[in-house]
Amino acid sequence: MALIVQKYGGTSVGSLERIENVAEKVIDWRARGHHVVVVVSAMSGETDRLIGLAKGITPRPPPRELDVLLATGEQVTIALLCIALEKRGCPARSYTGGQVRILTDNAFNKARIQDIEASAMRADLDAGRVVVVAGFQGVDEDGNITTLGRGGSDTTGVALAAALKADECQIYTDVDGVYTTDPRVVPDARRLDRITFEEMLEMASLGSKVLQIRSVEFAGKHNVPIRVLSTFQEGPGTLITFEEALEAEQMEKELISGIAFNRDEAKLTVSGVPDRPGIAFSILGPISDANIEVDMIVQNIGRDGTTDFTFTVHRNDYERALEILREHAAQLGAREVSGDHKIAKLSLVGIGMRSHAGVASRMFQALAKENINIRMISTSEIKISVVVDEKYLELGVRALHEAFELDQAA
Ligand code: ADP
Ligand code: ASP
Ligand code: MG
Question: For the residues of 247-315, what is the DSSP string, one character each?
Fold first, then answer.
């Protein structure tokens, strides 16, 4: 007998029929003798709808009240799933995040889980009940409702699996695993049997929204094995695993595991600034003071005593960042401040890269062949990212997928 935590995403619980389908699946697992804890998202589109309601009143709703509103989405689905389970004679009990006591910090809209009270859930499981928990939400020390950021139900699933020391955390979604890239963009994308935590973390951080970044971080830290599976078809899915568990041979063969992309960024350039110590700090200091996160940074080689400085931020922060730079331009001695929010970042990810040279040049060649201009480059041990014009995103991803023959198993 195993203890399994299953998380079902928005599409999987998008209608009454689908909720009843989930109930059938849960009952199936239980019939095989397992204890099951289920985490559900809100019905697909519901979180967006609720955000739309709040923004219909004011563009910047108070974060605390937004969380009170957003948490209702998941409260609907836990109740409906329990109703569907009980109808089938399966004892079940629903819990909101606060009722479990998923304790978080008080950073509304992006709270972090600090602690989970597992005793009530354990008692239910011992009594033969299925436990159904609302994803994406928790409660802070003062009893305020908090939410965990978009896609946060993944993190609830993994955190519950860690707290309950579950044997596996199954993430059920609308694709049957983690693919070499988003199958919506590249129909030839291939499902991976396994991917390491490290690679999955890079993929998620670089834009693959199949798992929330924090859920992967959490799983890596607490040794929770995750399997990504389809709600709608049978199959082995993708196991997110530790590097040691991968055979050395397999690691060496697979140069690149996947391609991630992200169109949520924008870039800003300060041109003609004096090339002197402290200039990077003078430019980025005010940006960081405004709580704007910077991703890629490039400073050109100086010429004639001046240099150009370019960096990227989340697209939502673009206008604000531009404003700040313009306010400081004179003080910085800059010739010009410019920006572009129609950019996209393409990234190759793979632990095989560590031991193989030539990945970058193969990447640049593939993009050059399609006449795609690279605007920025950044690398780390297991990834290479480039910034290109947004209009080349799909073309670029497909070209790279082909150049690295990702449609074929190594
Ligand atoms: P859920 O609502 O179940 O949480 P999400 O929409 O958050 O589902 O995540 C699943 C989606 O992630 C897929 O429909 C797919 O389009 C997208 N996706 C992006 N990158 C990948 C990838 N590398 N492998 C699989 N799916 C991906
Ligand atoms: N309902 C939330 C969202 O849409 C959380 C989730 O689905 O994971 O972001
Ligand atoms: Mg999701």
Answer: -HHHHHH-S--EEEEE--EEEEEEEEEE--TTHHHHHHHHHHHTT--EEEEEEPPPBTTEEEEEEEEEG
- For the cut 60, the answer to whether the pLDDT of residue 402 exceeds it is yes
The predicted model scores a pTM of 0.92
Mutate to test the pocket of ligand 2, among 136, 145, 148, 215 (most ligand atoms within 8 A of CB): 136
Residue ranges of the domains in the chain? 3-174, 259-403
Cβ contact 125:118 at 8 Å: no
Per the CB < 8 A criterion, the answer to whether 133 and 144 are in contact is no
Give the ligand 1 atom nearest the CA of 177.
25
From 19, 158, 210, mutation site for ligand 1 pocket: most ligand atoms within 8 A of C-beta: 210
pLDDT at residue number 247: 61
- Helix, strand, coil tally for the chain in percent (to 5): 40, 25, 35
Residue 252: is its pLDDT beyond 60? no
What is the homologous superfamily of the domain 3-174 according to CATH? Acetylglutamate kinase-like (3.40.1160.10)
Residue whose CA is at the smallest distance from ligand 2 atom 8 = 151
Q: Is the CB of 10 under 6 A from ligand 1?
A: yes
Contact 309, 269 (CB under 8 A): yes
SS3 383: strand
Does any ligand 1 atom lie closer than 6 A to the CB of residue 199?
no
- Measuring from atom 17 of ligand 1, which residue has the nearest CA? 210
Domain topology for 259-403: VC0802-like (3.30.2130)
Place of tokens 């497909």: 398
Asked if residue 73 has its Cβ within 6 Å of ligand 2, the reply is: yes
Phi and psi at 68, nearest 5°, equal: -60, -40
| Distance (Å, whole) CA 295 – CA 378 | 10
CB 97 near ligand 2, within 6 Å: no
DSSP 166-197: -SEEEEEESSSS-BSS-TTT-TT--B-SEEEH
Q: How many residues in the chain?
A: 410
Residues 140-181 have pLDDT tens digits of 999 999 999 999 999 999 999 999 999 999 999 999 999 999
Determine if residue 22 is left, alpha or beta; phi over 0 gives left, psi from -120 to 50 gives alpha, anything else beta.
alpha
